[in-house]
Amino acid sequence: MEELIIEGKKIRINKPDIMIWEEAGINKIDYIQYLLNVAPFLLEHAKNRLSMIWIYPHGIDGKRIEKRSLPSSAPDWVSHTFYKEKQRMLLNDKATLVWAANYGALEFHVPFDTYKKQNYPLEMVFDLDPPDDEHFDLVLEIALKLKDVLASLGLTSVPRTSGSTGMQIFVPIAPLYSFEETRIINKFIAEYLVEKMPSALTLERAVKKRENKVYFDYLQLWKGRTMPAVYSPRGKPQATVTTPVTWEEVQVGFRPTDFSILNISERIREKGDLFSVITTNKTPQTFDEILLFIKKH
């Protein structure tokens, strides 16, 4: 057992040498060191959002368990808030992040709003989900089309990998619009792109009915639903990470497996935090005129 002192909190790391991502050669203490490296950026995305952690008690090849409520075994100093008669976890500090990893969390998921201003998302998000790994080039192509559509509406966007097989496009917005209002725009853009690319895109939620098309998920942006926090690892063999990318990288092309726990810290040192447009360097965008246009038509 190894003891870490994080922000003045003593955390005894259970089984620090246990392998978590065997294929990538990453053990538990490697994983925790990674989290400490990316914590300044991950926490900026996650803070004050009602977090959900994914635990893989039988390894990443086994069944996952999703936890939203604070375990009774958690120390008093773990960041949390009372919500709907339950103590809910908040990823607001490094000590809580390391405690969660030691507890067994491998993935960190957050909603689109904060508990301090519920039902008003901080970003619009478009989720592109391919039918399989072989269709990721199509995801890149659609992402670029989506960027152009958003730009034509005067909206800046940031692409990122999901850490799994797909991509998500984030649009920083002012928290002035309800989920119902953001749904109007998401749906409008989704239907427009499906109309323009019917052989490549679908809005069909049932996987069996998608016919090898990319699923344009505009429904995920909703109350209580979540997405991985930026730089969150995923329970995949290659230890892939939810990673922001540049539009130039999308144009050139890449694979989701290009970004993992093994290289993200160096990538941030070289390129900076590409997600800061959504977090620390955010310019909140408004879309009153877009909403008005859609409602009129």
Care to describe what's here?
The chain has about 300 residues and is an alpha+beta fold. It has two domains: about 1-110, Alpha-Beta Complex (DNA primase, PRIM domain); about 125-295, DNA primase, PRIM domain (Alpha-Beta Complex), CATH 3.90.920. Helices cover about 30% and strands about 20% of the residues. It has seven helices and 15 strands. It has helices at about 30-45, 95-105, 135-150, 180-195, 245-250, 265-270, 290-295, and strands at about 1-5, 10-15, 20, 25, 50-55, 65, 80-85, 85-90, 105-110, 125-130, 160, 165-170, 200, 215, 225-230. Strands 11-12-10-14-13 form a five-stranded mixed beta sheet, with helices on one face. Strands 6-5-9-15 form a four-stranded antiparallel beta sheet. Strand 11 (about 160) and strand 12 form a beta hairpin. About 35% of the residues are buried. The mean pLDDT is about 95.
